[in-house]
Description:
51% of the residues lie in helices and 10% in strands. The chain is of the alpha/beta class.
Amino acid sequence: xxxxxxxxxxxxxxxxxxxxxxxxxxxxxxxxxESLRQKMLKNRFIRRKIIFGHRDMNLVFKAMEAGQPxxxxxxxxxxxxxxxxxxxxxxxxxxxxxxxGKVFYGIADVESWEDNGIPWEEAEETMVDNIADILAFGLDxxxxxxxxxxxxxxxxxxxxxxKVSRLVTQNxxxxxxxxxxxxxxxxxxxxxxxxxxxxxxxxPQPTVVPVGIDQDPHIRLTRDLTRRNYKDFFLPGxxxxxxxSGIDGSDKMAKxxxxxxxxxxxxxxxxxxxxxxxxxGGRRNLEEQRQLGGEPQKCMxxxxxxxxxxxDDEKLADDFEMCVKGELMCGDHKKECIEKVLAFIENHxxxxxxxxxxxxxxxxxx
Length: 366
Ligand code: SF4
């Protein structure tokens, strides 16, 4: 019997490499074709095939070619510092902004209350930290290029939530999310409003929402409610990246499991220790590694470098080949990875320190 695929935006999803093809089929996701990829080579995540699927990216690309406006929407639940998994989406929106999209970035503080029990005021320190991170990643916050809001303080998203709710039944939400608290259902409707917000503020235009595949239920709900409530709007599109598994071998980098990731605020010693212990695609000993070669496609060291810390595509390709041929040893590669990660984070923290006040201003926090 085929495995039941569990896609849970608030929990752990049970996906393995081979499940993604089935997801593409079952949920009507379009693959990134080679011709679309070629048109979007500027985007590191598309170029490196970390983004594997999309909905309506062709519309975004058309707008791009015609010089018409398009938006890129994302957000963060302020329940902890950015880590390797959560920062992927933040880096993706910076890439899309560089391609000409206006960024809309929502702070999901309603969701951090509903999912994690963090009161809005207590989430403020974390949201300032998260915004300083994304500014340090290179987000341009000028008003014509970006709009940042807090769910709890943005009246428009609450209005949209009330409006679309009229067409939502408990059965619908149950079918998409399973049995959940009313608060989580509510936060999913607030997210619908977040995703529609660019078109409410700036008029109908293609929108891309870069997400991990586990967030697809929100995208499907949003497209359904947009179709039924906002006839002249574009259905919000999406790109989907592969979920990073935990560096400790667990299914997913989850804030609930600190050994599964490292954050951009963590002491260097702790990051070093976690990378030293991370799961690789290496063999049992050096001799086997030389004879059989490693499996970089299964290796977290390789993925850490590919997602975030290796700028040079050619170096990545060379390392892949050397690993497969048994010419690269895991100990040496881990050492190199640690050096790259620590150098990046040291530089990132210096940039970030200077951006805390800017983040407070953007969030209207004293
Ligand atoms: S050599 Fe590098 S890429 Fe290959 S399995 Fe070891 S750590 Fe991973």
